[in-house]
């Protein structure tokens, strides 16, 4: 899902949620750069004035649906 994190507070909430609630691997991709969504330093290394692609690795459909539902508030519609 493509999202846009516009504020530092959004980045902090996103990272904290990814690291404290989800045990699964979550990745944020921008162009060729891929970072762990649980790494605040990794997230700050991205150009967050641009949208990013977020993916979660899980076989549990409930977890996946819940995660993407959580991201809807930042979703970029094209």
Mean pLDDT: 95
Strand fraction equals 15-25%
Instruction: Determine the structural class based on helices, strands and strand pairing.
Output: alpha+beta
> Radius of gyration over alpha carbons?
11 Å
* 3D shape: globular
Number of strands: 4
- Please report the number of helical segments: 3
Poorly predicted runs are none
For the largest beta-sheet, the strand count, sense and barrel status come to: 4 strands, antiparallel
Neighbour order of strands in the largest sheet = 1-4-2-3
Q: End-to-end distance, in Å?
A: 11 Å
Helical coverage, percent range = 25-40%
Elements, N to C (H/E): EHEEHEH
Your description of this structure?
With 78 residues, this protein is α+β, with helices and mostly antiparallel strands. It has helices spanning 8-21, 40-44, 61-71; strands at residues 2-3, 25-30, 33-36, 52-57. The longest helix has 14 residues, at 8-21. The termini are close together.
Short account of what is shown:
By secondary structure, the chain is of the alpha+beta class. The chain is 38% helix and 23% strand.
Any descriptors?
single chain, 78 residues, alpha+beta, 4-stranded antiparallel sheet, 38% helix, 23% strand
Question: What layout of secondary structure does this protein have?
Answer:
Layout: E1 2-3, H1 8-21, E2 25-30, E3 33-36, H2 40-44, E4 52-57, H3 61-71
